[in-house]
Please model this.
Amino acid sequence: MKKITPLYLLSLVALAFIACGSQEKTAKAKGIEFDSIVIDSTYHLIKGKEYPSCHLKLNFQYAKGEKADEINHLILHSGIINPELATTAQKLDVKQVLDSFVTCFFNDYKTDYGVILEEEPDSPGLNYAMEINTTTKNGREDIVTYLADIYYFAGGAHGISHTLARNIDVNERKIVTLGDLFIENHEKQLHELIVKEMTRKFNCKTLAELQEKEFVFADANVYAPENFILNKNNITFIYCDSEIAPHAAGEIRIEIDYDDLRDILKK
Model:
């Protein structure tokens, strides 16, 4: 294992960057392997006291090997770590991006929650935590799916968990979108299949029953998310917590076989 300690953070947190050679959930594809950088850090808002505090735990997989820079460029610009990076074409370095993310994360907590501490020193909502665990998996041919399981707690009644998925075409060196998969005017048929699987999942017979009983797609806006996994035999669509249903429903996933999609998939 390789340990790197950024000097500018020594006064704030005990921070470890560790390159781990073996991962249980790691893809391999045509000369590309994935390693990881692990960060586990805590900042204490009041010196000498365990709480209030801010905790960050991050396991970030990155590509190594032939043309790894292109794969890492796609991952970093996918918005998983920093949504603002999705709007720039700037060439980025993995460790620099993570350094910047960690620094901004703790600085924002120190600034924002420091103000709350001064105004409301007994506030129960001064603790903050975030965990990001990334994994990679092989699925459809020439596709590596990059998954980020994200949890954050901001002092409320409960934390929030969600999953972000990005499908990387290792041949074309691009993130696959719905527009890459489906023909024009595919929406009606795809939405019908989504409703079919969703009603089956919640043991409902119709979309109306699904909306009335489970409050799923309650605004009548049925859609396919860009958050999906290209598996070997099917597509998994992921709807994040509170995206299409109340928080109690949690994250919702449905699978649709490629055979059922054959009429609207691009050849």
